[in-house]
């Protein structure tokens, strides 16, 4: 059975590799079409170039940038508003256009906490994606954004509570780590066969390595620790009001 076509929507360059790099690589290797929309940073910036390299490694096409500024890095998109400050209707409409153009079976994005860190851009990208996934199938909304297309499923990248102690053992105690009860996880994906590809994509975000962000921590770890950190990805299926009758599941 062919794997479903997959569109990932994340806030920043590197979120796609850290949160869903294994699933993206797995689906691309299985012949599915895959792509990534990134809400912040603009074309021509160093992090956009790093994103392009990470997506090449994952087989996910070229960058699709909404072009808003990172909440904490104004120069990420000069002369553009911060993602969290932009008009919601505008932001949803931009994403709807990508959904209708790419026509994915499945969309994945941040969970309702905004992932482990709870970054405000992550949280807002979650809100925008949930709205856009619904709106894309409604022809009277955003009529200039292309023909309606209803994704079959929306999944939220997350971490179960049982995984957090192991993560902290590897990366050390950091700020609060947001996680969900294990029973809320609906798809646990073994991405071990694509682990090296995923780690290479994470490390392609060289400015984050230099800055000491999570890619920087990863770069200093022994390869044995990569499996504990990255060989499994977890998702929550988020209901869509107009889901297709045939359920489409992430391959587990």
Structure in a nutshell:
The chain has helices at 15-29, 46-58, 88-102, 120-135, 164-171, 195-203, 206-211, 214-219, 223-230; strands at residues 6-10, 34-40, 64-68, 106-110, 153-158, 187-190, 232-238. The protein is α/β, with parallel strands linked by helices. α1 (15-29) packs antiparallel against α6 (195-203), α2 packs antiparallel against α6 (195-203) and α3 (88-102) crosses α4 (120-135).
Task: Write up what this structure looks like.
This protein has helices at 15-29, 46-58, 88-102, 120-135, 164-171, 195-203, 206-211, 214-219, 223-230, and strands at residues 6-10, 34-40, 64-68, 106-110, 153-158, 187-190, 232-238. With 252 residues, the protein is of the alpha/beta class. The chain has a 7-stranded mixed beta sheet with strand order 3-2-1-4-5-7-6, with helices on both faces. Helix 1 packs parallel to helix 2 (46-58) and helix 3 (88-102) crosses helix 4. The chain is globular.
Give the topology, please.
Blueprint: E1 6-10, H1 15-29, E2 34-40, H2 46-58, E3 64-68, H3 88-102, E4 106-110, H4 120-135, E5 153-158, H5 164-171, E6 187-190, H6 195-203, H7 206-211, H8 214-219, H9 223-230, E7 232-238
Parallel strand pairs: 1-2, 1-4, 2-3, 4-5
Antiparallel strand pairs: 5-7, 6-7
Helix pairs in contact: 1-2, 1-6, 2-6, 3-4
Descriptive labels:
252 residues; globular; 7 strands; 7-stranded mixed sheet; alpha/beta; 9 helices
Q: How many strands appear in the DSSP assignment?
A: 7
Question: Helical proportion?
Answer: 25-40%
Assess the beta-strand content as a share of residues. Answer: 15-25%
**Number of continuous helical runs:** 9
Averaged pLDDT: 93
Strand order of the largest sheet: 3-2-1-4-5-7-6
Major sheet: 7 strands, mixed
The residue ranges in which pLDDT falls below 50 over 5 or more consecutive positions are none
How far the N terminus sits from the C terminus, by CA atoms, comes to 13 Å
Radius of gyration: 17 Å
Envelope shape: globular
């Amino acid at each position: 059975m062919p794997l479903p076509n997959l569109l990932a929507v994340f806030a920043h360059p590197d979120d796609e590799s850290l949160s869903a790099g294994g699933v993206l690589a797995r689906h691309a290797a299985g012949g599915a079409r895959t792509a990534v929309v990134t809400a912040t940073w603009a074309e021509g910036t160093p992090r956009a170039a790093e994103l392009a390299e990470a997506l090449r490694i994952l087989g996910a096409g070229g960058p699709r940038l909404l072009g808003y500024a990172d909440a904490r890095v104004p120069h990420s998109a000069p002369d553009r508003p911060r993602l969290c400050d932009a008009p919601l209707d505008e932001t949803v409409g931009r994403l709807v256009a990508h959904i209708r153009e790419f026509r994915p079976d499945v969309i994945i994005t941040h969970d309702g906490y905004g992932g482990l860190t709870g970054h405000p851009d992550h949280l807002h990208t979650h809100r925008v994606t949930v709205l856009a996934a619904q709106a894309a199938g409604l022809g009277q909304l955003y009529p200039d954004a292309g023909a309606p297309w209803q994704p079959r499923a929306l999944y939220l990248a997350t971490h179960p509570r049982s995984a957090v102690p192991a993560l902290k053992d590897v990366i050390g105690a950091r700020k609060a780590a947001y996680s969900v009860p294990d029973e809320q996880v609906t798809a646990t994906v073994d991405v071990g066969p694509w682990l090296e590809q995923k780690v290479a994509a994470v490390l392609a975000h060289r400015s984050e390595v230099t800055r000491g962000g999570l890619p920087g921590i990863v770069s200093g770890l022994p390869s044995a620790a990569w499996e504990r950190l990255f060989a499994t990805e977890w998702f929550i299926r988020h209901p869509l009001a107009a889901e297709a009758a045939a359920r489409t599941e992430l391959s587990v």
